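agent> fetching stored inputs for the adenosine-5'-triphosphate docking request
agent> found them:
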Amino acid sequence: MRILIVDDEARMAESIRDYFQPEGLESDLAFNGLQARRKLEENAYDALVSDLRMPGMDGMQLLRWVREEGPDLPVIMISAHGDIRDAVEAMREGAYDYLVKPFDPDELLLKVRKAVENRRLRLSVAAGMAGKAKDEMIGESLAIREVDRILAKASPTGATILITGESGTGKEVAARVSHRYSRREGPFVPINMGAFPEQLLESELFGYEKGAFTGADNRKQGLFESAQGGSLFLDEIAELPLHLQVKLLRVIQERKVQRLGSLKGTPVDLRLVTATNRDLEKEVKAGRFREDLYYRINVIRIQIPPLRERPEDIPLLAGAFLARVSGTMGRKAMELGDDAVRFLMRYDFPGNVRELENAIERACILSDGDTLRARDFEFLKGGKKAVQEREGQHRPESAKAEVYGIGESLEELERKAILAALERNAYHRERTAEELGITRRTLLNKIKAYGLETGSETEQA
Ligand SMILES: Nc1ncnc2c1ncn2[C@@H]1O[C@H](COP(=O)(O)OP(=O)(O)OP(=O)(O)O)[C@@H](O)[C@H]1O
Ligand SMILES: [Mg+2]
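agent> prediction call returned; pasting tokens
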């Protein structure tokens, strides 16, 4: 482990180095921000420990520089007593952690170890993402770490958890993480309240006895029972019709579920996790959501902030998605150029993490080199485009299943992506090029190369 220690008080920096050395941490020293910058440009470090207040380029400026240039380095800030506000500000700017002087060197050692370990874990997660179960929350922003901390604490208690946040922020991921943390033997059972008509939803949730209604030829276990000993995830809970809200409340209170057409209840032991992108308080006020149920499910509340409020997560997420996508495409590991990272960190992602994931997939398919550049993400530019993306979200997702196949060559994947885009845009080349985020000329070349022209059709003057 190699650490860079920055402090204008040389004695302070040296004493940290001397404390770290017998613990197997090798440290370099810098005595001001500029010196630190130079060292960071020349060497690779696992972590940076920096004083906040220094003459010239101070710790905060150094932190900002690190976040711009090397988004992946964990930074631990040391602040003087009385500067705690600055330390909190540093956390907001993406510092990993902070300590207040005077501090216990052991505590610093612990924080550094944790930061480095965390980063290694993350890198290996990113590298091994392909085909991995989706129960890892990637991200190191204060907000995501706080979400993780609460999930770790609350999940094993069995308390009901309500997850809120905009579409695509990772609510379902959080629900899966929660199940993992609960350490329950039973399964994780997700169901989307918005995806079924009312009657089907009821029979899916509660199950039924033979003959309970026309068509009930056999008895069937409901999802409450399927989640026995595990976690039931009720997604888009605001969509639950009022009369089912009453029934759900009863299940929670009595810990028993009654199949349709049955008089006796079966005891169920499960954790309930719910999610919504609606404002439930408003739904309650409007009389669309029962207040008593609201209080029952709103025991532990987890709010996942939109991606634009935690841009420091973007490099990690992008790297992980890229590793996954290039793995799926059977392509050798691709890299994200610094300019691409900067570009993505500045974009506001109205569709949140899902939009980022789709953007990486698309850029990956269309780029030629081994490194994704800012220009590969040009299709994200402009609010109009962003809104179209958001509204057309289901399209890229269903297109994904059709486009990606293991074992297909990259050319084949690209050909299919272009063909699908052409068809979506009625062979209008300008629009197709725009959707794909490539120039018209590139599109024409690819059309020719793949033999995709169908006569002289809509080619514009
Ligand atoms: N922190 C994260 N780490 C890794 N992947 C993430 C993270 N957050 C979101 N994703 C990925 O982004 C996509 C959207 O996440 P998810 O389905 O959990 O969002 P959601 O909040 O449930 O969205 P919606 O409200 O539209 O259902 C998924 O493919 C998910 O794997
Ligand atoms: Mg969801």
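agent> quick read of the result: The domain at 2-125 is CATH 3.40.50.2300 (Rossmann fold).
agent> awaiting further instructions
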